[in-house]
Batch of 2 targets.
Target 1
Amino acid sequence: MIALVTGGAGFVGSHLTERLLAEGHTVYGLDDLSTGSISNIEPFKGLSRYHYQVGTVFNEPLVAELVDRADVVFHLAAAVGVMLIVEQPVRTIETNISGTEIVLAAAAKKQKKVFIFSTSEVYGKATKIPFNEDDDCVLGASTRSRWAYAASKLVDEFLALSYWREKKLPTVVVRLFNTVGPRQTGRYGMVIPRFVSQALAGGPITVYGDGTQSRCFGDVTDVVGALVRLAAEPKAVGEVFNIGNDQEITIQALAERVRDKVDPKVKIEHVPYARAYVEGFEDMPRRVPDLSKIHRLIGYRPTHDINSILDRIIAAQRTATTA
Ligand code: UDP
């Protein structure tokens, strides 16, 4: 297939590109390099099946031209990470909603399949664990900036599903749960790259709140493998899928695991949420995906557990710092 990957120089976008190229597909990458990085796509630049364009998804003629060349669009260009969302809410909302509108409108003109990337954030403060795709989304007040991210991604989901229902545009919505792996930067707040770089620098590792909040970390190679299989599955169209790992770990246990693997002498420091983010910041206590739907359709099961995930990230960061 010929794929357009918007946000192709980002963390997930570059891993998806790598997988598509390895499987013999052709890839067009579009990225404005706001949070993506040219170094992420450096290894593919010489390949004849890889083409990239530095530009934004707000450039409608460019998006139309690239959509024209593709069979399938993976729309990953978006504002990334809770920290960025809290610091730049206007940009987050505009990028996530207007960018998706432009991509879907261009795809609809040519009836090209589109993957819309959503997030486990949309489950918000829901307490029924694990989160199923048909469960309610429980968001906080609009006065709390964190929820702008989930709300904007929910609008994207409604838009994608409406394009399918109303215009028969083949769309697929995927909700990624804390996807991690080499090349992810800690610059936008993501916990694992931050903990690993803090530990490698001699500490301290900063746990926000009391560390009892938990997450499930999915390896990016598992995630991109699922995406390529979903793209070939006609029954995925018009559906929403959780993708990730359902093995749960508290942030305190994660910090201890990173410390023990890197340097047992490193200190773990607790930082109040108000200092880490903003006053009144709301965090989710637990977040676990129900993976039965994607398992039923394509047989998906995560293959990397938290230990192998951490080992790979620690090795990659060690290489990067010594390079
Ligand atoms: N976190 C932390 N220390 C950090 C960065 C994040 O304790 O240096 C916590 C954060 O408060 C959250 C969890 O780790 O409870 C996951 O944060 P991340 O931003 O990676 O993803 P989120 O699940 O919030 O989207």
Target 2
Amino acid sequence: MKALGGGDVIVVGGGIIGGSIAWRLAQAGAAVTLLDASVFGGEASWAGAGMLAPGGEFVSRSRWAEFALESRALYPAFVAELEGETGVGIDYRRCGAVEIARTEAEWQDLLARRAAQAELGIRAEVTVGGLYYPDDALVDPRDVTRALRCACEKRGVRINEQTRVMAVRVTAGRADVETSGGMLSGSAAVLAAGAWSGAIPVNGADGQIAIPATFPVRGHLLGYTLEPGSVGPILRHGHTYVMHRSSGFTIAGTSSEQVGFNRELDSQIVDDIHARAAELLPRLRSAPKPTAWLGFRPATDDLAPAIGRLGDTCLWLAYGHYRNGILLAPATAARVAGEMLAR
Ligand code: GLY
């Protein structure tokens, strides 16, 4: 088998999570090789809306709710640092979000949610028709992955695209990665392949090591071209949201389907999202026909991310971020790269 030539650290997966970890490691002077089965930033990170909104996602205390707030707090500096290193502009705005109640029962639910979220440190104010979350923000994930790729390249990360990982073999100090292009060895590795992570066999000295399984939860999104600045905060009602990029591109979501990696758009789901979104923002009814796309949220059985070192091996897991991969990228990178560098 052809040897690809190895870096000290091999990152499997070039989404926003793997890309952020590779960048942080390379900043600290590590030699990094990043592998992606298709193209850098081409899957869930490309598809994601980029809502940085713990207010819409977390109601009760959990370590992930705290981690999400930590990551949101890191975002402004993360974006500024990436822009500073690369010159690539990133559309990031703390635009706030309005969660709408349509009935008295929904309003009572929102008030209960506001009380529970106050305990977590998530601020919400009463506004006309619902609650306003002043700290919720948005980012264009495609800008982030474009900048991450540039930052990684500037820092000398070797990016091998169209390189599928078949298996990983790990001990405490050596990782051998079997890929479609040959074997690659390093002194540590990171598994950050999103919904594909759990299918990669990980072997130790005594045989296969169990890692959390993954499955894809497909989501559809629609994009409308509107006048820049014509929509204010993110609008949300249940699982429907509308958010507006600085360019005017306005995204409506979403859906959740467990259909494996089926990439065929479902026109009924597209029509349903359009109808729901137009209830939130009636001008969408007369907007030019939206474009539609889909992506695969990386889920684990308990819907919580798998982040951290695998036993006493030199493999770190960083996948399963489900609905919050874009939000959790800065904190995941800080934690994983920090632990690896400390070792
Ligand atoms: N972050 C929202 C979603 O996954 O649809």
